[in-house]
Recover the amino acids of this structure.
């Protein structure tokens, strides 16, 4: 039982690291990045390529993941999403174009990774970091699990605090409420958008490297599954709410672990879809999302 | 010609089926409804047709027709359920509906054949039937894009609030669009499983959503012709791209991304734009005199339409 709870928390932390940046970008600068899953896999894959040449310790691997994720995310923002937002005539059209552009871009790094690995799962056998587990009597804890838990909850707390207390965080939230009024108040939308996308990509890269250590190896196709689960977590908690993403990721991971433990597991993929659908029907703003104010 | 036809028969068939699937997403999109329910209907149609053909040996017309009826009814119910959603939220809800059906098929036990799917759905359906169905569908859709009804749908897409104030029943248009999309998707799915004689849960995944969407975006979302262009391009692209070998998918991704960023109205929008420019230039040349510019501006019906928010409005730079 305690083991299942710990495993659910670890899985939830990985979902959280992945979904945190996505939710932030969607809730503030209005960008729903479908290339997020691809960035996540490609960051983990770059770390794999590097570790085959040079034996690296865990912190260096994490840094590589964060860096590659952030750079890729920035590239997507500058090359695709900025031109779309600049050109689109209205908000709804821009949203859809961003979605489709993201889907298109997502194919590219995934195809490169699939080509180089021949779709065989890759791992970090060359790393100097050794995955171990400690037996505490009632539960077995892995060192990767501890790092994941600390990273996920720590980073969520830092980002939540920054959004609430720091001035740039306030500015970013202002963009989420009304982008035009925010820029009239002197908020540099472009710089904050780039920052948000870099943070989102970095978090995705971090999640990718940690997931690869946790599972031993991952296939390039893992990104798509994570993308849909992240949606479920975000919608469950409420778009743009940091506490909501934490709650959503943990609840989703909890239900999935419960179903995996108690049934044969063939229904597990349906949980994310069911959660998305039901939440959108019952409470589209999520458990902790703010009510949308309409004045038209 | 004949040898070429037979060696490319599978590609020709899948062009028409992809075209119908793309239409099942294009029809809602034209009314401003961002719904992927057509992909779910594809699954409903594929499984219904296969089950009825294998178990009851029904004629293909009845097997596919039954799938279309079920999917249309499911579309209507779905429209009632998701009535208050719009935009990305509606897209996500319908994507999860479609993918949920895939998981349902995996867990369907004997009825759906589980993870391996169903085999041996042999019927008398031929390519000619598929072509006839497609032509009928295109004629009906082309009719709905013209005249008063076409303008009404355009109004619902461009400004639903304005459409309501003009006396258009927006809710009814949206529901109708869900029903039509369900029937189209089921027709595509049913014909596909009868032509291939098999169906498995893998046929309805996230990749099918991506394929259908990319066809419409690259071709153009505002008319059936855009879906046709997209279906032809993306069905035949893999055989053309054999030159680049293993980098096929990379080229594919670059094309989709570039189309989404630079050609938001698709190739059809690009063509309409070019045609419009060509025509206005030709009209100006014979007029010649000083009064010409005034008359051309006033007599350009497309510009008037654009001012009213017609289909060509966004195609303008």
């Amino acid at each position: 039982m305690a083991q299942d709870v710990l495993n659910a928390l670890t899985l939830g932390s990985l979902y959280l690291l992945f979904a945190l940046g996505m939710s932030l970008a969607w809730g503030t600068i209005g960008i729903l990045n479908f290339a997020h899953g691809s960035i996540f896999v490609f960051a983990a894959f770059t770390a794999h390529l590097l570790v085959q040449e040079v034996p690296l310790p865990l912190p260096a691997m994490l840094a590589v993941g964060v860096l590659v994720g952030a750079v890729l995310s920035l590239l997507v923002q500058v090359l695709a999403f900025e031109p779309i937002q600049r050109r689109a005539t209205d908000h709804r059209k821009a949203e859809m174009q961003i979605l489709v552009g993201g889907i298109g871009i997502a194919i590219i790094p995934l195809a490169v990774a699939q080509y180089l690995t021949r779709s065989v799962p890759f791992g970090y056998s060359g790393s100097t970091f050794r995955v171990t587990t400690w037996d505490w009597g009632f539960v077995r804890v892995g060192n990767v699990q501890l790092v994941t838990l600390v990273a996920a909850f720590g980073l969520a707390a830092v980002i939540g605090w920054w959004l609430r207390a720091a001035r740039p965080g306030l500015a970013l939230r202002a963009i989420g409420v009304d982008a035009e009024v925010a820029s009239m108040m002197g908020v540099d939308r472009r710089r904050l958008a780039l920052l948000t996308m870099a943070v989102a990509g970095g978090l995705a890269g971090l999640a990718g490297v940690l997931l690869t250590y946790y599972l031993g190896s991952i296939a390039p196709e893992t990104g798509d599954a994570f993308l849909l689960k992240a949606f479920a977590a975000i919608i469950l908690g409420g778009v743009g709410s940091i506490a909501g993403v934490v709650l959503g990721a943990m609840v989703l991971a909890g239900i999935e672990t419960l179903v995996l433990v108690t049934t044969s597991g063939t229904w597990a993929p349906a949980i994310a879809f069911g959660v998305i659908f039901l939440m959108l029907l019952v409470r589209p703003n999520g458990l902790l999302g703010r009510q949308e104010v309409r004045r038209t | 010609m004949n040898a070429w036809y037979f060696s490319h028969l599978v590609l020709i068939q899948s062009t028409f089926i992809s075209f119908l699937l793309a239409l099942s997403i294009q029809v809602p999109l034209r009314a401003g409804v961002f719904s992927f329910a057509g992909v779910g209907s594809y699954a409903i149609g594929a499984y219904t047709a296969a089950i009825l053909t294998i178990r009851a040996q029904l004629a293909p017309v009845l097997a596919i027709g039954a799938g279309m009826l079920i999917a249309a009814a499911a579309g209507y119910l779905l429209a009632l359920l998701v009535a208050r959603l719009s935009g990305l939220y509606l897209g996500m809800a319908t994507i999860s509906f479609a993918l949920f059906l895939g998981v349902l098929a995996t867990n369907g036990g004997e009825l759906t054949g589980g993870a391996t799917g169903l085999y041996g759905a042999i019927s008398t359906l031929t390519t000619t039937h598929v072509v006839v169905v497609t032509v009928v569908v295109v004629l009906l859709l082309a009719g709905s894009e013209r005249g008063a009804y076409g303008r009404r749908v355009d109004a619902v897409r461009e400004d639903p609030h304005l459409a309501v104030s003009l006396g258009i029943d927006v809710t009814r248009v949206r529901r109708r669009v869900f029903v039509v999309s369900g029937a189209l998707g089921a027709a595509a799915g049913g014909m596909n499983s009868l032509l291939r004689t098999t169906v498995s849960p893998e046929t309805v995944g996230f990749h099918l959503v991506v394929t259908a969407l990319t066809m419409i975006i690259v071709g153009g979302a505002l008319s059936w012709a855009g879906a046709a262009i997209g279906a032809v391009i993306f069905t035949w692209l893999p055989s053309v791209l054999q030159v680049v070998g293993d980098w096929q998918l990379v080229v594919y991704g670059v094309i989709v991304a570039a189309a989404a960023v630079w050609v938001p109205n698709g190739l059809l929008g690009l063509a309409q734009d070019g045609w419009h420019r060509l025509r206005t230039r030709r009209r100006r040349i014979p007029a010649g005199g000083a009064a010409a510019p005034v008359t051309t501006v006033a007599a350009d019906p497309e510009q008037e339409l654009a001012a009213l928010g017609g289909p060509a409005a966004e195609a303008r730079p």
